[in-house]
Amino acid sequence: MLSRIVGTFGLSIALLVAPHATAQPAADVATDPEVLGQQRLFSAWLEGQIAYRGLPGIVVGVVSDQRLIWAKGFGFANVAAKVAMAPDTKFRMASHSKLFTATAIMQLREQGKVRLDDPVTKYLPWFGLQPASEDDGPITIEQLLTHSSGMPREAGDHWTTYDFPTGDEVRALMAERRAAFPPATRWKYSNLAYTVAGMVVEQASGLSWADYVQRNIFGPLGMTSSSVDQDVAGLAVPYGRRMPDGSREVLPFVDARGMAAATGITSTVEDMAKFVSAQFRRGKTGGSQILSTGSLREMHRPRSMENDWQGGNGVGFAVTRERNKTYLGHGGGYPGNTTQTWIQVDDKVGVIVLTNTNDSEPGAIARQLMATVGEAVAKVTAQKPAVVTWDPSWARFAGLYRGRGGDAQVVLLHERLVIITPNGPNVDRPITLEPLGEGRFRYVAPTGGGPVGEIVRFEEVDGRVTRMITGDSFVERVQTP
């Protein structure tokens, strides 16, 4: 008896398709005609937004993997002095600071200094927030980072007075604060939670939050123009919202003080591009690889969702789902500065929008930037599938297979095979068999209930197909006379 295994079992439909190949080099992306055309399209639109809405200025950037392929300033960093916006113009990044706090916690976690499921009181014994109800469990570090702690949004009236509390003042007020919801009840944004998370970083590392970020994130990434709560040269003049008479108030520099971990960072498009590129890297922690592949995946994975399930949070990152793609990023709002970063990890594309006023709607601008230039970059850099030549001998796999769990039928179409469940309720959601070579295939499906990602192969005895094997399971070929 001669037996050989050549190639898979599915529950619905399976198609033979090609594996992945390489993408276009970044140098070509920056000069690709379609990408350049989309830059002109977006620029024309944004110039209109500035003109018709009376916006002071905006700087945008587009990242492709490890390179900032386009950065451009529009309007003015200082309207009165006619100082043009530029890629090196500095902005208060506001809540983008939370991404750096979350990254710091994940670095400390990799070092074994914290756990995400640790209660906050393990590191900050004074953390005595009054619970929303008597049977609430302790608030954990993960809940701080995913906006699921139920904590109040703020630590006082600092957005009105611009007088942010010191760290000591935050500690003193904590006993008076009451949670709005029990932990893990719903998504609820909280600057106070991230302020506390920054204090955890300080306790676990022995460094101030600003020093920790400088040494462990800014430094390794080469973010030389970034700082924490410093009135540095090169900052865009911050303007308030446009009033009915068309005027805009010039706002002061505001120190976030004890809330820097939630809202205190200053940066540029060029520096933020380096942070975006770090999200696409793979490997072990070290040097510019500020987090391991595993930690990055954990940060990017949704962990708490808004009640409408249209968005939520990973660890630090906001997560949204649009046009069948998942986007990561964050927004930021500070006196006279609003900002937005959007990242599509699968495409390795990110966009950055920094503005020097409070009514510019950078989130909407970022969506248009991603929909134009970003999508053009994604198409140019998309991995082109390798061509797998159809082997006519694969027709021998067609037939009915039977197991204790049910039947599966392999059907020969035009130069492809599909696997259907004969008594299944539908046939319109194909499961894909991805050729791997040597008669082996990978089971690829839109949902994870079946043997997704596992190897499928066929077994033959004396020249007859006898079995279809998927992972560790098999079904027997029903032989016809």
Describe this structure as you would to a colleague:
- The protein is α+β, with helices and mostly antiparallel strands.
- The chain has two domains: 3-22 and 386-477, Lipocalin (Beta Barrel); 26-381, DD-peptidase/beta-lactamase superfamily (Beta-lactamase).
- It has helices at 26-30, 33-53, 97-110, 141-145, 158-161, 167-174, 191-205, 209-221, 260-263, 269-278, 293-300, 362-381, and strands spanning 3-5, 13-16, 57-64, 67-78, 83-84, 91-94, 227-228, 265-267, 304-305, 311-313, 318-322, 325-334, 337-344, 349-355, 399-403, 406-413, 416-420, 430-437, 440-444, 455-461, 464-470, 473-477.
- Strands 1, 2, 15, 16, 17, 18, 19, 20, 21 and 22 form a ten-stranded mixed beta sheet that branches.
- Strand 9 (304-305) and strand 10 form a beta hairpin.
- It is globular.
Which characteristics define this entry?
22 strands; disordered N terminus; Beta-lactamase; 481 residues; 2 domains; alpha+beta; 9-stranded antiparallel β-sheet; single chain; 12 helices; 10-stranded mixed β-sheet; Lipocalin
Question: Quick gist of this model?
Answer:
The chain is an alpha+beta fold. Helices cover 26% and strands 26% of the residues. It has two domains: 3-22 and 386-477, Lipocalin, CATH 2.40.128; 26-381, DD-peptidase/beta-lactamase superfamily (Beta-lactamase, 3-Layer(aba) Sandwich), CATH 3.40.710.10.
How is the topology of this model organized?
Blueprint: E1 3-5, E2 13-16, H1 26-30, H2 33-53, E3 57-64, E4 67-78, E5 83-84, E6 91-94, H3 97-110, H4 141-145, H5 158-161, H6 167-174, H7 191-205, H8 209-221, E7 227-228, H9 260-263, E8 265-267, H10 269-278, H11 293-300, E9 304-305, E10 311-313, E11 318-322, E12 325-334, E13 337-344, E14 349-355, H12 362-381, E15 399-403, E16 406-413, E17 416-420, E18 430-437, E19 440-444, E20 455-461, E21 464-470, E22 473-477
Parallel strand pairs: 2-18
Antiparallel strand pairs: 1-20, 3-4, 3-14, 4-5, 6-8, 7-8, 9-10, 10-11, 11-12, 12-13, 13-14, 15-16, 15-22, 16-17, 18-19, 19-20, 20-21, 21-22
Helix pairs in contact: 2-12, 3-7, 3-8
